[in-house]
Amino acid sequence: MCDMLFRRRQPISRLNKLRELFWPRRGFSRSLRYLSKRVLRLSATPHAIAAGVVAGVVSSWTPFIGLHFLIAFAIAYLVAGNMVAAAIGTAFGNPLTFPFIWAATWEVGHRLLGNGNPVSEGLDLEHSFSLASLGSMWQPILKPMLVGALPLALVSGMILYALIYIAASKFQARRRLQLAERARLRLAEALQETSV
Predict the structure, then answer these.
(1) pTM score, two decimals?
(2) Residues 171, 40: contact at Cβ < 8 Å?
């Protein structure tokens, strides 16, 4: 019975399911609005909210997929950030943004290390991944990506912290005014009822 309540009248075809996986029917703006409202409604200080989101974003710059939540929670703990905000902040790293993140960290890392162009020097990624050891991937892949991630994470973190801190402060101030107004109206109604 319960299964019938949540079933669609017109089942979605496999092709539409695949399309919605990469491009949702209502677009990405709805998801972004949901995440922003979810972050702003957290019951924490503006610093904790901003620091938590920044911890998630900073962890997404690292090449350690699968460890982003743990890295985000560790950073959030160190900077007194909100853990839920940190988890939401890791949404910065997703299948759509990872290619850009990896390309940016790779390029910045190689420029900072002065390695030149590793692709033209014949970097054998297939060989490095087939060995599947950290030692074989550290020098040619992970080290440049980590070095490149540091300045990118620092810049994006500072900008996001300021924006989210201001937005959370304004949202919470507006929320307090709304709650105070509701309480004042309830009190006025209660006094009016007792006087009658």
Answers:
(1) 0.73
(2) yes
8 A C-beta contact, residue 61 and residue 153: yes
Residue-wise pLDDT tens digits, 133-177: 556 666 677 888 899 999 999 999 999 999 999 999 999 899 899
CB 56 within 8 A of CB 88: yes
The answer to whether the beta carbons of residues 61 and 156 sit under 8 Å apart is yes
Which among 73, 151, 76, 78 has a CA at the least distance from the CA of 110? 151
* 106 and 145 Cβ atoms separated by less than 8 Å: yes
Structure tokens at 3: 């299964």
Cα dihedral: 170, 175, 177, 183 (round 10):
-170
Amino acid at 94: N
Rg (CA), the chain: 24
Kindly state the tokens that stand for 34. Answer: 């949901």
The answer to whether residues 143 and 113 touch, using CB atoms and an 8 Å cutoff, is yes
H/E run at residue 170: helix 143-195
Q: Does the structure show a pLDDT above 60 at 39?
A: yes
